[in-house]
Amino acid sequence: MAVNGTPLAPPALPTLPAHPDPGTDAVLDSGFLHELAHAFGGPFHFLLPERFDANLAAFRAALRDAGVDGRVYYAKKANKAAAWIERCAAAGAGVDVASLGELREALAHGVRGENLVVTGPAKHDELLRIAVLQGSLTAVDSLGELDRLVALAREAPARPARLLLRRLPPQQPHSRFGMDGPELEEALARCVRAGDAVRTEGFGFHLSGYAVQPRADLAGHLLGLCRRARALGLPADRISIGGGFAVDYAAARHWHAFLAAQRPEHYHARKAFPADGFYPYHSPVAGADALRAVLAAVPEGGRDDLGTRLRRTGTLLLLEPGRALLDRAGASVFRVQGVKDRDGYAVVTVDGTSLSLSEQWFGSEFLPDPVLVTPSGRARGPGVHPACVGGATCLEPDLLTWRKIPFPARPSPGDLLVYPNTAGYQMDSNESPFHDLPLPPKVVLDIAEGRPRWRLDRRPAR
Q: Nearest to residue 252, comparing CAs of 291, 288, 285, 295?
């Protein structure tokens, strides 16, 4: 750390600065964050809904530029805030929900039932029943679930149950999601026998990973399944390729340099993380550009790219991005409570817990560097003050950041640590009021007359 206020010069520590973002930078430099930290007396998240709007527009532009008819559904599991649902309702976008609570909240914030797609395995009967009544599209994961959906649809004969049949990815045969080839054949036969009780609109899949070609290959396979279903008299005019659109958090040179340099001694207690266990914080093809790449790819065994095949067959493309719609749409703020010197570095304790940075959920770490913000502004300077960041619990492994971050100044009580770009899957997937600590509130920010203004995220009463 420092001796008599003079920074030491430890071996170079790897860093991973996030991409600069004007919206986040404006908030960091506004002086507003310390006011909010004082008001809430604890950690909080801030949300930037205009960035969500821009990301949604980029996905729609990718579809439009390819001449493909498509619909974007926000995967609600990526973040619990109501602000995103409000934006979907305002823009006429859809929402992907996987529980009765998520479905009810989407409806409460103005999303029409027909603009919801219900996913998830082995859905509760009540969720299926409400989906039928609201005219929502249901991704059917098994033969048993199909039978339950048909039975519920027959109890509510005013409208058919809209459904997609989910295909088990042949590339991922051990996935717990979807039906294999023989099961799909049986599912199609049952849909035919169900008659007007159901409307079999097409097929979908749940594919892990971010690679472009496997997604295009499986989409091409679904187009063949649509032809098979139409030959049986079923409408089958759409396919869903799910989510899996990566987010590019950091520049390629920073990411590759970090991976090459990082070693156990760069982490508190020599914590070891396998390099392949980290999220790919740099992706050369990300967000809406990843969709463009999927549409431009030629599915296995074909000659035309996916976009051409979708246009030629008149097939509607559905997609369910979550993290990619939330890219740079929010950050997490923690206040420094104490600083303890160790051998050459410090342990900073903040007023929240690692449960609010959900890479811990995966036994990994959120790697983009947190920004140190003092009452006079962002810390800058040539100094190197290494510190890891611990949470305010009695648990030894409660560290927000195991890595020794080379801060430009020594963190002090009352300073803020701002973790950038945490809206997608980070800020609330694993939150818990452990020790009776309140969950960090979410603050929706916009800029008015050059200054941020805020409101608390609104959620319907439970």
A: 285
CA distance 134 to 235: 20
Could you give the CA distance from residue 87 to residue 302 in angstroms, rounded to a whole number?
A: 38
Q: What are the domain boundaries of the chain?
A: 2-48+329-454, 50-248+283-326
Beta bridge partners of 453: 446
Q: What does the pLDDT look like over 64-75, one tens digit per residue? A: 999 999 999 999
Report the C-alpha dihedral over residues 373, 374, 376, 382, rounded to 10 degrees: -80
Sign of CA dihedral 166, 96, 354, 260: positive
Per DSSP (E only), the strands in 145-232 are 161-167, 198-205
The tokens of 251 are what?
């520049």
Domain 50-248+283-326 has CATH 3.30.2290.10: no
Q: Which two tokens stand for residue 432?
A: 């818990």
> For strand 116-118 and strand 346-350, is the pairing parallel, antiparallel, or unpaired?
unpaired
Q: Are 188 and 229 in contact (CB under 8 A)?
A: yes
> What CA–CA distances, in Å, run from 186 to 161, 218, 373?
18, 20, 60
pLDDT in tens, 300-332: 999 999 999 999 999 999 999 999 999 999 999
Judge whether 29 and 378 are in contact, CB under 8 Å: yes
Nearest to 145 by CA among 165, 130, 173: 165
343 Cβ neighbours under 8 A, 6+ residues apart = none
Output the six-digit token pair for 129. 């029943």
The SS3 assignment for 60 reads: helix
CATH architecture, range 2-48+329-454: Beta Barrel (2.40)
Residue closest to 425 by CA, chosen among 111, 75, 101: 75
CB neighbourhood size of 208 (10 A): 13
Q: What is the rounded CA–CA span in Å between residue 93 and residue 56?
A: 8
Classify 124 as helix, strand or coil: coil
